[in-house]
Design a protein that fits this description.
This protein has 244 residues and is mainly alpha-helical. Helices cover 66% and strands 0% of the residues. Helix 1 runs antiparallel to helix 8 and helix 8 runs antiparallel to helix 10. The mean pLDDT is 94. This is DUF8116 domain-containing protein.
């Protein structure tokens, strides 16, 4: 990963573009699913305030910022546990550095707004059984592991960020989405139901998040490009199933 420019994320203002990409993703998914509360936060306005005068953020805006930054700070470690060990080791230095930076910025924003930082917990393979077996038992290819990791963790990231944004996501839908996702990507390959397929198709627009961050921070990263390609390919596959 090209990390030189990510080292420049040191202050709340530096994180404005990062936040904007995360908020745009949350809004896109929520709007596509027609959840209530999509417009509770003006993402563009929050990003502008974060960039110009972070101490002027309202409590509502600060909750949104902290939700995105903390969610991203702790995302990579559980994601990598779904991946081969060599992949985790390759990302570890950059991921740890970025985690510390984002956590610190989130704490600064939270402190000014009088918020308590809540850290989300993402599923790891050891937390899950599919038909009584490890979810990795039937998933051998690297790309297949990547898509499985994304399908599970971006669902949980969205639930965390949406709650921080005041978006109402039905808990029974989240539970069903998690169950069907594991069965589809790590189990029998059972087709996703239409509503969950739509949900995952929207969640797989995180390729746009990858591209937005890469462009905003001038990374020109081969790794980011590969991530975006795989995420976009799965989104297209899900769309083709829906259209068919």
């Amino acid at each position: 990963m090209t990390i030189a420019r990510l080292l420049g994320i040191e202050t709340p203002a530096d994180s404005a573009d990062w936040y904007a990409a995360g908020r745009a993703y949350t809004r896109r998914v929520a709007a596509g699913m027609e959840f209530d509360g999509v417009e509770a936060v003006d993402g563009d306005g929050v990003a502008a305030t974060l960039r110009a005068n972070p101490t002027a953020l309202s409590r509502r805006a600060a909750e949104s910022v902290v939700g995105v930054l903390v969610g991203d700070a702790v995302f990579t470690d559980p994601f990598c546990e779904w991946m081969p060990t060599w992949y985790e080791l390759g990302l570890w230095p950059a991921a740890r550095l970025l985690e510390r930076r984002l956590r610190r910025i989130a704490r600064e924003v939270a402190a000014v707004a009088g918020l308590t930082v809540t850290t989300p917990r993402f599923s790891r393979p050891r937390d899950v059984l599919v038909a009584g077996r490890s979810p990795l038992a039937e998933v051998s290819g690297f790309r297949e592991r990547f898509v499985l990791a994304a399908a599970v963790t971006h669902l949980e990231w969205f639930a965390h960020a949406a709650a921080a944004d005041g978006i109402a996501v039905p808990q029974d839908l989240l539970a069903r989405a998690r169950r069907e996702t594991l069965e589809h990507y790590a189990g029998s390959g059972r087709p996703l139901s239409p509503r969950i397929r739509r949900f995952q198709r929207l969640l797989f627009t995180d390729g746009e998040w990858v591209q937005a961050v890469d462009a905003a921070y001038g990374l020109d990263s081969w790794v980011f490009d590969r991530w975006a390609r795989w995420l976009d390919a799965e989104r297209s596959r899900l769309a083709a199933v829906a259209d068919g």
